[in-house]
TrEMBL record:
InterPro entries membership: CdaR-like_regulators, Homeodomain-like_sf, PucR_C-HTH_dom, PucR_C-HTH_sf
Pfam families: HTH_30
Official protein name in the record: Fis family transcriptional regulator
PucR C-terminal helix-turn-helix domain segment(s): 239-284
Amino acid sequence: MNFNQLKSIYPSAFLTDDSNNDQNYLTFPYQNQWIHFDKKQLTSSESKLLHLILNKETDIKNPENPQSKWYDFLIENNSILPAESGNYRIIQFNIKKKDTNFNKKLWLNAFKSFFENVEAAFFINDHYGLLIQHYSGYSLNQDETIGILQTLDDDFSIKTKGYIGQYWSISLEIKDIFNEEQTIFFNQLDKSKQVFSLPDIALSYYASEALFKSPIIQQLKEELIFHSEIKELITAIWLNQGNISLAAKYLYIHRNTLQYRLDRFYEESGLSLKNRDDLLLCYLLTI
């Protein structure tokens, strides 16, 4: 189904070059772009149908990417479980800024080599793919995965982002869990750090709709988050868990400069970013 056909059914659908982290839209990779649907105009059944259609539409039937039981289960909607037992996690990756010389097979083999007990790894479309890992007692953590992607980005002259899923026991429910993890990844792709997982974005992802509907939150946003520098300040303090020295390094400014900005924000707003509750409220305003 092409875009014009989808547009005739959902007139508000639109395409962009980058993913959109707006929680009001259901977003999918579409060819070399992203397609967005207004959630308010979709029923639950329509959302599930779009997942099935668009996941299938973006498949690449490429012989250099041999199919696996996991591919058939997650992408082709095969009802046969890809394994009999065990716990598995799905690592999603999305590659940007690649040139015409980029070798997907070479990159995928290099990426796989850093992980133990890889059950499957494949590209779903030209830039997006999955790695499925069986739990064996040890797994690379988020910082280690960031280091791997940064190394590969330098070697292949690309820019990669990733999402590390939770480990789940094998069951038919993994398919629904993957669909939600995929939606989270696409919607947070341009908002989160290079590699992220559910704990990183759970608050912003699941609270965003309620925050959007709150007159109090919207008014506070208008009065307090009126400049990109303020949003950047709050985000830096939040991501570094209130540590002023680390936040200063994150912003590439001197610690004293950051302290001055914190004091000035307190004078203007009455909210102290050194206070945990005040910081949480301010972070919610940036979502």
